[in-house]
C-alpha cells in the first residue's frame, strides 16, 4: 500500500561468520539506503472482433503521475500518446496468426511501468523452399521455420507420412532450434531419398506442419546438356561438308589422259592441199 513507501536501509557482507551468534564478524556490514515504490498491477487482455485484434492494458489506481502511454513490439514503437488514463489499448487489423508475438504497454511514469500482452497461436510452420533439388552423392538440406509465438517446443521430421526420422540414424542429421529446424541427408540416392518430407512443430498452443518435396538428380544429369551440344555440332559439320562436296565442279581431264592434238586452222589446211596437188603434177 501507499503507507509502505518511504526510505529503507539495506546492508551486505561477504564474511561467512556475519550471522554467527558468538563470533564477531571480520568484515563490517556495508549499509546503504534504498527507496521502495509500490508497483501497480496491470491486467492485460486480447480480443478479436470484426477482423481486428484489440490489445488492452488496465492498471490499478496509480499513485504515480501518468504522462502518457506507448505500445512497443520488439524494438519498434507502434503507438504513443500523452493521455493520463490507467487504461490504454492498441488495435491491429488482421488475424491472430499474422500478428503473434509479445507486445508491451508502457506507462510513462517515474519510474516507468510496463505491462505485457501476448498474442499466442499454434506454430505457423513454413518451408524455406517447397521444392528442393540435389545431385546424387551430395548432401541434401531441407529447412522449415516458425515465425510465430510462442516458440516451438518439439520438432519432428517424417518421410512420405511414415515413421519419424530419428536424428543420427542412417544418413539423417537433424538440427533444431526454437523457430527453425534443418534436416540433412548425406550421400543422396535417386531411388531412396526422393519424395515428400514433412516437418511437424508443437508448442503449448497446438501443432503445425509443412511439406518439402525433394528431387534427386542422377550423376549424369549435368552431362546430358554437354552431350546434346556436341551432337548438334557434329550434325552441323556433317551438313556443311556434304553441301560443299556437292557444289564443287568436276575436274577437267589433263592432256596426258588421251586428249587429241589441237586442230589446224582452215587457211593452213587449204595451203597444204595446194602443195600436194603441185607435187602430183
Total strands: the figure is: 17
CATH homology superfamily name of the domain at 126-217: Immunoglobulins
Q: Which radius of gyration do the C-alpha atoms yield? A: 47 Å
Q: In order across it, which strands form the biggest sheet? A: 6-5-8-9
Largest sheet: 4 strands, antiparallel
Pfam family, one: Ig_3
GO molecular function, one term: cell-cell adhesion mediator activity
GO biological process, one term: homophilic cell adhesion via plasma membrane adhesion molecules
Region (Disordered): 1-22, 251-281
In short:
This protein is mainly β and 281 residues long. The protein has helices at residues 223-247, 266-280, and strands at residues 6-12, 30-36, 42-49, 52-59, 69-73, 76-81, 87-93, 101-107, 113-119, 126-127, 131-135, 140-145, 154-159, 172-176, 180-185, 195-203, 206-217.
